[in-house]
Amino acid sequence: MGNKVKVGLIGTGNIGRIHIENLQKYPEDCDIVAVTNTTLSKAESCAAEFNIPFVEKSADELIARTDIDAVIIAVPNQFHTPLTIQALKAGKHVLLEKPMALNQEDAKEILMVKEATDKIVMMAQQMRFEWAAQHVREQIERGELGNIYMAKTGWCRRKGIPAWGTWFTDSKKSGGGPLIDIGVHMLDLALYMMGNPKPVSVFGSTYSEFGPKQKGIGSWGSPDWDGIYDVEDIATAMIKMEDGATLLLEASWAAHMDCDEEPHLSLYGSEGGVVLKAVDERFVGGKFLTEQFDRVVDIEFNEPEGFIHGRTLLVKHFIDCIKEGKEPIASAMDGYKTQIILDAIYESARTGTVISLGW
Questions:
Q1: Cys bridge to 313: 105, 129, 155, 318, which one at CB 3.0-4.6 A?
Q2: Where are the alpha helices (DSSP H) in the chain?
Q3: Burial of 45: CB neighbours in 10 Å, binned 0-12, 13-18, 19+
Q4: What is the 3-state secondary structure (H, E, C) of 121-149?
Q5: C-alpha to C-alpha distance for 95 and 78, rounded to whole angstroms
């Protein structure tokens, strides 16, 4: 495909607008043709701000447009599966916000429809594209860290429950709490950095001590005090891989804990380790941990000045994959694998047992 990729956006909230801002950095490669939102006035305001020519009254009308090649889906979790499947059947490529679906059954349905087409489904996992993550991944592929046998990762907020009482805190609409909201980012990144090992078992726990009491409320979103809160405040899990490696994962919206409310990731290798450093929810550097001449050695690394941020590179990669017909770095299969693990953590927390993963 030598021409520009024509894109439609479903969902003009914060994340949708971020996608627009980044896509418009590549006017030679793509055009945003139309947007839609359940609140039409918000779609109209967004279109006016970003000079987008068309506003559709519904997702159905946007997906039906014959002049659109790809759709970005940036809407609440409950709509991910039906809209992705609808877009694929209409012959569109899809950039899908996390999580892939509410559960692995829905995620598998997306995967099956995708495999029956020649269309791309890419997960919007921007952390994979940050410079620090790519730099470390290069060193791992060169063998500098040896065998990665363990990793610790998570994203912990001390007082950050978003939009209490809205779809965020309703399990039927969100699929869960911080685990599926922000923990999914760290789970995806850790698996990517570890070389995509095959997970075989999960033991997890979830706790809900703040939300039911309307405590731990963050500043993001507008609460609906007549709504419900039936998700977790915090989740933790141990994931065992087929090669023997272990991944420790934690995610919280609210907890009495000493944390800087940034994501974290540490890798433990036979020849060296890594700790990534986050600023404003982005990994911008870190340090390699190793040993030379019988002494411990720390080697710091920092994002070079002027580096293009991960979200910008993410949309460029999506467009390039469409134009070149290649599989994206964050594929539908990656999203499905992550969804299986998320479901297993919730099931383990419910039953108190180790969950074996069937593939």
A1: 129
A2: 14-23, 40-50, 59-63, 80-89, 104-115, 131-141, 171-174, 178, 184-193, 310-324, 332-351
A3: middle
A4: EEECCHHHHCHHHHHHHHHHHCCCCCCEE
A5: 16
